[in-house]
Amino acid sequence: MQSDNHNDIIDKGNSVISIRGLYKSFGTLGVLKGVDLDVYKGENVVVLGRSGTGKSVLIKILVGLLKPDSGRVEVLGKEVDKLQGKELDALRIKIGFSFQNSALYDSMNVRQNLEFPLKQNFKSLTKKEIDMAVEEVLEAVGLKDKVNQLPSDLSGGQKKRIGIARTLILKPEIMLYDEPTSGLDPITSIEINDLINDVQRRYHSSSIIITHDLTCAKVTGNRVAMLLDGKFLKVGSFDEVFADKEERIQSFFNYNFIQ
User: Is residue 210 exposed (0-12), middle (13-18) or buried (19+ Cβ within 10 Å)?
Assistant: First the structure.
């Protein structure tokens, strides 16, 4: 179950996300202070950090919801802050975003929730093509039997899985996971971590996983990037990052990790 089990699918010559010298402030508050990061094709990179360290700001810049003050952010070869309108929409379709709260529509059953993004983005699909896509992603997340249920009938872990399935249905090249194990019990957290690894293998997607859950980081991340005080203090494998005797890294580890 260790993250290095699937290093063999990573293409280190192909950077799908490239961030150089990224700065972002809000008024006098500097949030990102010179961030550099590459994410390679097929790689899961975990961004670790405390609340309020700029993890979600980084994600919003990657999908063009916020503009950087300075620096360069390229996603799938496109400089994000230079894109507008249809170009930006086309890029966003290639980026799947798994929300912390799953963001399912309460009034729609599982099938309707999954069909919705397909119908919005690909108007020419036949009913058969849509049905096949729904079946494929439900199989991928292990919930084919829940197709007609409402979100209110699902457990927290099942909602998280269906949220991931709805993201996968557009076949994104990049997955962004926001606190995927937040609020879940330990057993369900293990299932979600395994699912993140399954998605990486099955879809050869590249992912950024935002978390402060060290078990999630250890199990899913090919590399871990430690975001502290607006910069990546250390980037490497889980063991490399936490072998660093830097005081802030050690205190983060000691505070968060429950063996």
Answer: buried
Q: How far apart are CA 37 and CA 23, in angstroms?
A: 13
Cα-Cα-Cα-Cα torsion 240, 183, 29, 33, nearest 10 degrees, comes to 20
User: How does residue 90 score in pLDDT terms, banded at 50, 70 and 90?
Assistant: very high
Q: Which residues contact 157 (CB under 8 A, 6 or more apart)?
A: 184, 185, 188, 191, 192
**Is it the case that residue 98 has pLDDT exceeding 90?**
no
pTM score above 0.70: yes
- In whole angstroms, how large is the CA radius of gyration of the chain? 18
**Mean pLDDT value of segment 31-38:** 95
**Domains in the chain with CATH codes:** 1-93+197-259 (3.40.50.300), 95-171 (no CATH)
* Amino acid type, 149: Q
Query: What pLDDT does residue 224 have?
Result: 96
Q: Is the pLDDT reported for residue 211 higher than 50?
A: yes
Q: CA 79, 83, 89, 90 torsion: positive or negative?
A: negative
SS (H, E, C) 125-167: CCHHHHHHHHHHHHHHCCCHHHCCCCHHHCCHHHHHHHHHHHH
Q: How far apart are CA 27 and CA 80, in angstroms?
A: 22
Number of residues that make up the chain: 259
Say how far apart CA 110 and CA 165 lie, in whole Å. 10
